[in-house]
Amino acid sequence: MTIPNVAVTVWFGNTTTAASSFTLDDPVRGVLDNATYVLSGDAGTDVTSYCNRFSVQRGKTSPLFGNIDPASGSFQLNNETRMFDPLYAAGALYGNFKPGKRVVLQVLGVTVFDGRVSDWSNSYEVSGRSVTVGRVEDLLGSLGRQLFDDWTPTDGQLSGARVIEVLNRPEVLASASRDIATGKSVLQGEPVTLGTNVLNYLQTVANSEQGLFFVSRDGVLTFRGRDSVGAVSSAVTLSDAGPLYYHQIEVEQTGDTYYTKVTVEAVNIPAMTLTDPSATQDGVRAFSISGLLQNTQQQVIDMTTYLGAVYSTPDPSISSLTVELSNEQYPGFLAYGVLGIELGTTIQVSFTPNGVGAAIVQRLIVDGIGYDVTPSSCRVTFTVSAASGRTMFTLDDATFGVLDGSSLLGY
Q: Which of these, 180, 219, 257, 364, is most buried using a 10 Å CB contact count?
C-alpha cells in the first residue's frame, strides 16, 4: 500500500495573520522595513519524522441545508524525547505550544489541509510511551469566534460582494487569501447588531445564495455561487473498472434529501411555501429555512420553487465513497486526481454492484472530504450528493443545453 509520502509542518514561532501581515499599497501595512506588519512569519518546522498519523474532516455531512462548519481533525506526534512537551523547559520548542499555530498536512506533496492548531494535549504511559496530539481547525474556526460591531451592509449587493464586505470589516480578522465568486442572489441591507457571530452571518449569506462558503484544502477562504455548484464538467471519474478506483460505496435514500413541503422566508419578506402533491400519499415531510437575506419576494419564490423541484422526488444516490490510495492501484500520477478534489466539485462515479447488471453512472457533488493518513496508508472518504436538478443550463451542451431537460434555465 505504502503510497503517502507524508509531510507535516508546524509554524511554532511567529506566524503572521491578516492583522499583522504586510499589505501592498496600504499606507500603514505597506511600509517596507516596519516591525509591526511583516512580510512573513517563520519558515515552519518539519515534524514529519515524529508523526504517527493524521486525520481531517472538511465540509458538511448534510447535502441540503447543512452549513459548512470549521474543519476538524488531529495529528499525533511521538514525544519520547519531550520535544513537544509544554512542561519541559529545556525543550527546543518550549513556550510555543499555544493554540493558533499554523499547520500544513501533505500527501505526495499535495496540501490536503492548511489551518491552525486549536489545542494541544499530551499523554504519558508508565511504559515510557508518550504522544502529543495537535487538534486542528481551518480559518472558519477563527471566524466562528469573532463578533461584529454594529454596522449596516450595502443594500442591493450580490452575495459575493457581501462576503467581501464582511471579510473587510475592521473587527473581522480575515485572511487575505481569498477566492470569492460573484454570486447571483441580491441581498438586502438589514442592519447587523453588535455581537452577531461572523461565521453564522457568512453561512446565512451562503444559504441565501444556495452556494458554498468554505476554506479550501490549501487554506484559501472560498465562496462559490450556485451557478458553479453542480458544474457541467466532472473533475474526475471514479470507477470499479479504473483507472481511478473506489474501494467502498454507500447508497442511501435518505430523508435528508427528500421533502414534500418546503418553506423559505427572508428577513422582512413574507414566507413562501410549496407542497408537492405526493405529500397526501406519503405524508408530509416539511422543512423550512428562514432568516435569509434576499431583498425581493421573487427571489424567495424562485428559491422555493428550486428547492421544491429538486428535493420532492426520492433519489437513491451514492452518499459516500472511500478511496484507498495504494501503489498497486494508483501508480504514477493517478493519486493526484483524487488528492486534488475540492469541496463543491462535481465528480462522476461508475459502478456495477457485485458485477450484476449494467454499470450505474451518477454525477455527484462533493459535500465533505475526510483524510485518514499514516506513514504507510492513505484513506480518502468523500461525502456526496446527487448533482441532478442542480446544474445550470449550458449552451451547446448535449445534455445540459436541452430545453425542458434536466438543467436549470434560470434562478
A: 364
